[in-house]
Design a protein that fits this description.
Mean pLDDT: 92
Number of strands: 5
Distance between the termini: 34 Å
Oligomer: single chain
Radius of gyration: 21 Å
Helix content: 40-55%
Structural class: alpha/beta
Strand content: 5-15%
Largest sheet: 5 strands, mixed
Number of helices: 11
């Protein structure tokens, strides 16, 4: 995708309803739109987090005086789940207990609180348990695609789980024998079940790709939902972004299910698919 087209799409994804509108009217894949919408929400939340948290006592006062958690979230234009978390932290409910409540709403005895937590979980398609489950499942899906490709060629490799006991930083795949990609031999592959825009790629270079390059040599990263391909990236020498079509042609899309309508199994018990500020 070209950068101008990506920027236009990013700007238009202001609400969850925009996902359906853009898919139905312009033919975009819905899961791609959900991925980009999630990236936008996470970045905006990171920028606002401490400004909103500084007003946590005010938020709790509003709730105590009858304003619902969802109304407060809408007033501050902040994710509903995180708004509820801030309010309940002011009520001496720890993060750990908050996530227990969100993951098991039937255990919440206070009827008003249970109803409002149901409302915020339904409204927040990014930070809710179902939103986190979606991201977790998407990540496992991307890794499975990579494993299928390697297994189909009889290639031996170690996974991130295998490597974790030996290294501080671990790519998703470390092959026993290098693989020819883009005219060079690659020793590792990183799977990203997201969209590679310039912000995301720069973040991954700093946190993962450069350390992997230093430790293991030349490697590759695949963004299963595509990437902005007309920008210059300061990738480590010997590291390339590989198109999903290298592994599948055409790539098999992730099955889209509206978040909140179907509960996904095999999900984390708390909302940890996205890093949350402290």
């Amino acid at each position: 995708m070209k950068y101008d087209a990506y920027q236009d799409l990013f700007r238009k994804l202001g609400t969850p309803q925009d996902i359906d509108f853009l898919a139905e009217n312009f033919g975009y894949d819905k899961e791609l739109l959900l991925v980009i919408y999630t990236q936008r929400v996470v970045r905006e939340t990171t920028k606002k987090f401490y400004r909103v948290k500084a007003q946590a006592r005010r938020l709790a006062f509003m709730w105590q005086n009858g304003t619902s958690l969802l109304e407060i979230a809408n007033k501050f234009d902040f994710p509903a789940i995180l708004t509820a978390l801030m309010v309940l932290e002011q009520r001496k409910i720890s993060r750990k207990n908050f996530w227990k409540m969100i993951n098991d709403l039937d255990s919440v005895k206070d009827r008003r609180l249970r109803r409002e937590l149901e409302d915020v979980a339904r409204a927040d398609i990014v930070y809710s348990p179902e939103g986190s489950a979606r991201q977790y499942a998407r990540g496992r899906w991307g890794e499975a695609k990579l494993h299928t490709w390697l297994d189909g060629r009889g290639l031996e490799y170690e996974t991130e789980k295998d490597l974790r006991a030996k290294y501080d930083k671990t790519p998703d795949i470390l092959v026993h024998k290098p693989i020819e990609m883009n005219g060079s031999r690659k020793y590792w592959i990183e799977s990203k079940a997201t969209f590679g825009d310039p912000y995301e790629v720069r973040r991954h270079i700093k946190k993962q790709l450069q350390p992997y390059s230093d430790m293991f040599g030349d490697g590759a990263v695949v963004y299963w939902f595509g990437y902005v391909d007309d920008q210059r990236y300061d990738l480590p020498e010997g590291v390339d972004i590989i198109s999903p079509t290298f592994f599948e042609s055409p790539p098999v899309p992730f099955p889209y299910v509206p978040v909140g309508e179907t509960r996904l199994e095999d999900r984390p018990l708390v909302s940890n698919a996205i890093d949350l500020p402290e």
